[in-house]
Structures are given as structure tokens and as C-alpha cells.
Amino acid sequence: MKVVFVTPAADIRRNSIYRFGSSFYGRSNSITGPLILGGILKKEGHEVEVYEELYKDLEYENIKDADVICIYTMTSNAPRAYELANIFKEEYKKRVIIGGMHASALPEEALKYADQVVVGEAEKVIIDLIEGNIKESIVYAPPVEDLDKIPFPDYSILKTPCQVANLMTSRGCPFSCIFCTTSRMFYPYRYRTPDNVIKELEMYKRMGFKYVNFEDDNFTANRNRAKEILKKMIQNDLVFRETFFFGRTDLAEDEELLALLRDAHLNRVLIGIESLNQESLDYIDKKQKIEDIEYCGQMLEKYKIKLIASIVLGLDYDTKEDIRKAVQFSKKINAYQLQPAILTPYPGTPLYEQFKKEDRILIKDWQHYDMMNVVFEPKTMTPWELQFEFFKAVNEFYNFKGAMKIFKIFGFEAGMRRLGLWIASKFGKTFFKKKTEKEDGNIYNQLYKLSTEISS
Ligand code: B12
Ligand code: SF4
């Protein structure tokens, strides 16, 4: 059978300006689920192809001979996933299966567009599903118990660009912040043995990848295990040019860990600083103190690990001043990058349930659920003001002076990339201004109108 996996991208991400911008700043990398599932099917003798719309438009001609179309969903690309499902079902008469994050949270919604929907991790059901041995419309897939037993992602079936290999050494997270989807989708928290991770890294070295991302939600959650992996990477010459990872401020408590991260080139980390207001940190159940954030900033600079400071905008206890404080603080600790994320009530999270109960969800079109748009009614400001704070944060953080500092601390490549981000932030501001002036009912006009209604 020929099986095609598609990872859709929302409308705003499927245009040449966005693609040019992200190729200039970012490096293409893949969602690994379809590559793992596709690899399992290939081993069973099926022909498999994987396409990601983020990097290239789909060419229907190339895939119209497929027997089954499998579509991955996250919330912001769900409308596009449903549009594609309709095209494949109605025009091309294909069997369509939908899975992934969003479909797992709202399977009944996804089923309106597909023949079958899978909730959860699909490794254990994918063969029977494709071969027609599972008849249920909504398939509840059990989580993988032993992560060492699943095959590595198969990059040979990926038909769209990919410069960085994504690797997950664990699934889930031992914490449970109220807005987090992954700790709920990938439950319980599980991890692979260091030897199994090392084998996957060896494969990427052989394949010639220069960059690897550790996409675990929290790579350093178990410090001893992380250290063991890092030591083995160094001993076995499995150090890549740069490896990005997600961590928490608590990693700074362990200097041996920091030194190993530096030596294994895990030298770019995204950490959820979230807020500098302790009340807010407690409200989201972050289990993090302001002092932890300050200390982490200092230690990362000492070990030359570039910090991507992620802050959440719009928490119930945060005012505009709190947001501005967090931006200034990120500048002060010489964060390499700021990732302002607008609080987003993703289906499947306690936050979504809370906002639904309080009738605070304003925008229901899922494509805007990408953490860059306000979709709910904030407590301490209007939706429009919060949206404005997002663009203000970006503009405040990125400037020429900051880029020069990064050159000095982290060297030429980091400095150049930071300069690129400064230029991109200028484009972002122009984009926001242009969109705001247009009277075409775009998200900003909608927020402006809603805010006027709320205020009066
Ligand atoms: C790598 C990654 C990216 C990459 C690559 C994306 C791409 N090529 O499209 C980059 C950095 C570019 C990216 C971008 C974005 N991302 Co992203 N990303 C991830 C990350 C870190 C890892 C994905 C992964 O490999 N997971 C591990 C594998 C094992 O899981 P999986 O792929 O989900 O697959 C399993 C199941 O879902 C299921 N399955 C998957 N596909 C299918 C298909 C079928 C048919 C079936 C039956 C089953 C099935 O079985 C699989 C095996 O168990 C996840 C976090 C995470 N832990 O998943 C965030 C995540 C998916 N991203 C997220 C977001 C918000 C975005 C952006 C909107 C961010 C932004 N503001 O730009 C964009 C949107 C991109 C788009 N395509 O539209 C959110 C989504 C939240 C939500 N509920 O919707 C996540 C969960 C991060 C988070 N913590 O919030 N992302
Ligand atoms: S620490 Fe990060 S990955 Fe873990 S639950 Fe909180 S937001 Fe999710």
C-alpha cells in the first residue's frame, strides 16, 4: 500500500516571505511522529512518503496515487489539516486518517473530516490501522511503554527539506503547567536509555547531519541521565556543531551538568522564564522562584550556553508592567533570544477548561492558536492591549546594542544571527502596522473591535 503523511502548515506560514525569513534565521527540522510511524510501515513493506508544508507547497500530482493519507495536527494547523482532508477525501477519493496533538484533544471534531482518528501515540496501532484491521472511528492508542523498542525516525522517507535531525530522548515531562499540552499528550513521563540515544546520534553522524535538536520537553529533568548521555556523546565523538534543547531553570544548580552541556555543544537552550511575578508562577504551577531565574541567567552566561528566554504574556496576575519587567530582565541577563508567547488555551489543558468555564475564549478559529495572537479575554488589560504588548516586547528586546553584546559574549555566528533577528523584528512591526490599518476583518481588527466592545 502507498501511505503518505502530511504535516500541514497554517496559511500564514505557507508564503514565500515567511519561508524566506525562517530559512534565513532558522534551520528546517521535522516533526518526528510521521517519520517514526512511516518507518514502521516501510519495514512492513508499505511504500511511504512524508511531506511538510512548512517548507514546500504540496504537489498533489505526486501523491495522488497514495492509498491512505495520514495527517498530523497541532492546533494552529488544524483548519489546514481539515481543508487538506476534504481535498483528499472529496476530490481524490482517498482514505484519510488524522492524528497528532490537536486530534488527540478533540477527536470528535477531527472525525468530521477523516475516516478514522487516532488519539495518542500511534506506534502500537499504526500497522493494523493502515491494513484495515482496526475498524473503530476513534482509536485510543496506548502509550509506548518502552521507548527503546521503537525505531528511530526514518529520514529517507521525508520528501521536503530538513537540515537538522530532531531527537527525543524522552516523552512528556514530570511537571504539569496548566497551559502545557505535551505533558498531557505524552503521559506518563518516560525516557530512553543513554545507549539507545547514542545509537540514534551515531546514525545522524553517519548521515552527515551538522545539527541536532533535542526536542524533549525537558531534557534535563533527570540530571543524572542527561549527564550520562552527554558524557557518552563526548567520549564517542558525537558532538555536533550546535544542539538545541529545552530545559528548566533548575539545570543551573548543577555545574557538572553545565560543563557537560557546553562540551557536548548543547549550547542553545529554551527555558520558560514565563513571568517575573511570583504570584503568576505559582498560578501556572511552574514550581519556579524568581531567584532561580536570575541565577540560571548568570550560570548560562558563565558556561557560554545561549539562552532563549520564553516569557508568557497575558497571565491573569500579570499587568503590562510585569510583561515589560520580564522583557527588561531578559535583556539584563543577556538572553540570546526572547520568545514572547501569548498565553494560549490549547484544547486538552486545564487552562482551556478554565477559560471555557469563564466564557473568556474570544477567537475560535484554531489557526490563530500559535502563541502569537491573543485568542482570549485577559484579566488586566484588553485583548488589543495584550496583542500590542507582544509586538512591543519584540521591539524592545531586539536592538543593535543587544546584538553587539551577543557578538562579544558568544562570538561571530551568534552575533550575526541576533542581528538577523533584530532586522526580522523590524519587519514584524511593519507587518503589524500594515495589518492593523487594513479594514478586512483580520485577527488584529477583530481584537480591536472586541476590545472596544469589552471596554464600553
Ligand atoms: C519539532 C517541533 C516543531 C518544528 C517542526 C515543525 C514542522 N516541521 O512543522 C518547528 C520548530 C518548525 C515547529 C513549529 C511550530 N510549532 Co512545534 N513543535 C515541535 C516539537 C518540539 C516536537 C515534535 C515532535 O517531534 N514530537 C515527538 C513525536 C514523537 O510526537 P508527534 O510528532 O506528535 O507524533 C506522535 C503522535 O502525535 C501521533 N501522530 C503524529 N502524526 C500522526 C499522524 C497520524 C495519521 C496518526 C494516526 C498519528 C500521528 O503518533 C506519533 C508517535 O507517537 C513539539 C513538541 C512535542 N513534544 O511534540 C512542538 C509543538 C508541536 N509545536 C507547537 C507549536 C505551537 C508550533 C508553532 C505554531 C510555533 C510558532 N509560533 O511558530 C509552529 C507551527 C508549525 C506548523 N507546521 O504549522 C506546539 C503545539 C501545541 C498545540 N497543542 O497545538 C508544540 C506541542 C510545542 C508546545 N510545547 O506547545 N515545531
Ligand atoms: S515544565 Fe515545560 S514541558 Fe514541563 S509541564 Fe511545564 S511547560 Fe510543559
Structural class: alpha/beta
The figure for the number of domains is 2
Mean pLDDT: 93
- CATH fold category name of the largest domain: pyruvate-formate lyase- activating enzyme
Roughly what fraction of the amino acids lie in strands?
Answer: 5-15%
Total number of β-strand segments?
14
Describe this structure in words.
Strands 2-1-3-4-5-6 form a six-stranded parallel β-sheet, sandwiched between helices. A six-stranded parallel β-sheet has the order 7-10-11-12-13-14, with helices on one face. The chain has a two-stranded antiparallel sheet with strand order 8-9. By secondary structure, the chain is α/β, with parallel strands linked by helices. It folds into two domains: 2-140, Rossmann fold, CATH 3.40.50.280; 162-437, tm_1862 like domain (pyruvate-formate lyase- activating enzyme), CATH 3.80.30. The mean pLDDT is 93. Helix content is 44%, strand content 15%. Strand 13, helix 14 and strand 14 (337-342) form a beta-alpha-beta unit. Iron/sulfur cluster binds at residues 173, 175-177, 180, 182-183, 217-218, 248, 272.
